[in-house]
């Protein structure tokens, strides 16, 4: 007899839960430190890190117009993906906070998270999903391209956005 189990689960999580807060801090620390090391030769100033983590509460990922998903591997929270409907076009969702802790990477979780986020966007009524990312996040750009996202013209003017992607969900 062969038993098949999956170690991955993805489920909605309140954007302000302790689990969400810990994963947001890990995400922000990693992407901020990566940018600062690349451009300035040092990690993020701790005061700036605290200020920025506190500033972006993630409230835009709350129902009814958003959702935060948490991926667990073996029951341990290891990643997030958020979706929110755009305020000016509720048929378009924006993919936010796609992140997996380093120890969970390479195990299929990123594809699972993004696919779950696409399903969540559809359930919110979206027919299209957009996202932005940076030049140095090569792995993210590779993932999005592999999952059928196409690079497009800018859809926002965010300070660190350097690449914009879209995917039809219908």
TrEMBL record:
Record protein name field: N-acetyltransferase
UniProt GO molecular function: acyltransferase activity, transferring groups other than amino-acyl groups
Keywords: Acyltransferase, Transferase
InterPro entries per record: Acyl_CoA_acyltransferase, Bact_Acetyltransf, GNAT_dom
PROSITE patterns per UniProt: GNAT (PS51186)
Annotated ranges, domain N-acetyltransferase: 22-170
Recorded superkingdom: Bacteria
Gene3D superfamilies: 3.40.630.30
Pfam families assigned: Acetyltransf_1
């Amino acid at each position: 007899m062969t038993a098949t189990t999956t170690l991955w689960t993805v489920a909605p999580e309140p954007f302000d839960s302790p689990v969400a807060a810990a994963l947001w801090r890990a995400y922000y620390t990693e992407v901020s430190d990566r940018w600062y090391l690349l451009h300035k030769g040092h990690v993020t100033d701790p005061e700036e890190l605290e200020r920025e983590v506190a500033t972006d509460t993630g409230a835009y990922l709350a129902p009814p117009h958003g959702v935060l998903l948490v991926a667990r591997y073996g029951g341990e929270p290891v990643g997030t993906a958020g979706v929110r409907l755009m305020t000016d076009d509720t048929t378009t969702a924006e993919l936010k906070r796609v992140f997996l802790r380093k120890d969970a990477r390479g195990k299929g979780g990123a594809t699972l998270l993004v696919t779950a986020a696409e399903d969540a966007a559809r359930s919110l009524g979206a027919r299209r999903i957009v996202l932005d990312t940076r030049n140095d996040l090569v792995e993210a750009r590779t993932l999005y391209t592999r999952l059928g996202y196409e690079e497009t013209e800018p859809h926002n003017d965010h300070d660190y956005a350097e690449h914009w992607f879209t995917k039809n969900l219908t």
